[in-house]
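Sequence, please.
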């Protein structure tokens, strides 16, 4: 049992590509990405961070390759991790070739910033030879000079024109194994650009509000921008860009997908903000449960409601529910039905035990 969606979102059908063994676009689930912030040349730290991201649920991880030592380090890094690795390339085409040869599963670059068409051709040859996909990464902060002169400033039209120009470069070389992003730190600029691009191409779209900010403000901006587009059926893979531990990007990414009923991983807690009616300390209880249940990977819905006003209704829609009752006696719901009562001092222990039991059941099935 899970929360019944108000409606199902109909996704736009795009071409399907592969980033390593992970499908992006077509009928593939919407994937969640992040990017390492360690020095790529520090292989140990980079591998450790990638593994942390894997454990948090990352489907794909991007690694920056600003110099030759970094791009060559990918060979050792990729051997030690399980998720597909995207090499982030800026300006120098040789870094992309080195990354492809080193085993990168995807190359992220902006063809318009890579130099001559001959350089782009060499990258695409390396990508083909090494079964490597590409992400065209258009960014409002690094638009081509000609487009800035034409439009005077970054705008949706400029981002889309840049994307279309770059698409043509790849198509002219008979290269179709790519996805596209048109990112901006401005929510409205980015969403308008993605909407326009979605109308004129069928390649998979990588969604993101770039340089969104810290954990709180960046999460809000990303949820608004990415959420609006996903709600319209636009988008095949997402990255939440935060000035924060990259693991938080994965967590917020999944929260966005869970909120739209597009993908579920881990605990989805429905809890009240609490008020004078609460029969137990809801806020503190939820904080403790979030920490104690952070290891759960199975998709489980849990409601924690402080009183009987909305508690039974919310519990009827979740796999496990807790509703506050009088005199320190609270009701546990299982599969939407009242099951047994517990005392206040047993709440955390009881709920954790029930969730872990449910997780094992789902994992074994």
């Amino acid at each position: 049992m899970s929360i019944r969606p108000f409606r199902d979102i109909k996704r736009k059908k795009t071409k399907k590509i592969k980033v390593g063994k992970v499908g992006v676009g077509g009928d593939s689930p919407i994937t969640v990405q992040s990017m390492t912030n360690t020095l790529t040349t520090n292989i140990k730290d980079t591998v450790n961070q990638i593994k942390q991201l894997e454990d948090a649920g990352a489907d794909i991880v991007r690694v920056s390759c600003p110099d030759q030592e970094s791009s060559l380090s990918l060979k050792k890094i990729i051997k030690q991790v399980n998720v597909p690795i995207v090499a982030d390339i800026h300006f120098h085409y040789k870094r992309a070739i080195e990354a492809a040869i080193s085993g990168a599963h995807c190359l992220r670059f902006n063809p318009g910033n890579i130099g001559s068409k001959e350089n782009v051709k060499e990258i695409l040859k390396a990508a083909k030879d090494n079964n490597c996909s590409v992400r065209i990464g258009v960014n409002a902060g690094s638009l081509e000079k000609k487009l800035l002169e034409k439009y005077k400033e970054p705008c949706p039209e400029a981002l889309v024109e840049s994307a279309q120009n770059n698409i043509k470069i790849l198509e002219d070389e008979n290269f179709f194994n790519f996805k596209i992003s048109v990112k901006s730190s401005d929510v409205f600029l980015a969403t308008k650009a993605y909407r326009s691009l979605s109308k004129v191409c069928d390649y998979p779209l990588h969604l993101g509000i770039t340089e969104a900010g810290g954990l709180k403000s960046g999460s809000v901006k990303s949820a608004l921008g990415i959420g609006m587009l996903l709600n319209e059926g636009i988008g095949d893979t997402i990255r939440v860009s935060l000035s924060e531990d990259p693991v938080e990007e994965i967590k917020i990414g999944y929260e966005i997908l869970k909120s739209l009923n597009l993908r579920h991983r881990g605990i989805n807690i429905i809890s009240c903000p609490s008020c004078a009616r609460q029969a137990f300390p809801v806020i503190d209880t939820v904080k403790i449960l979030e920490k104690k249940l952070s290891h759960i990977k199975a998709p489980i819905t849990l409601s924690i409601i402080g009183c009987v006003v909305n508690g039974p209704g919310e519990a009827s829609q979740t796999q496990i529910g807790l509703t506050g009752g009088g005199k320190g006696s609270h009701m546990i719901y299982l599969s939407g039905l009242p099951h047994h009562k517990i005392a206040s001092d047993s709440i955390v222990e009881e709920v954790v035990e029930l969730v872990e039991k449910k997780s094992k059941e789902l994992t074994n099935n």
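The radius of gyration is 23 Å.
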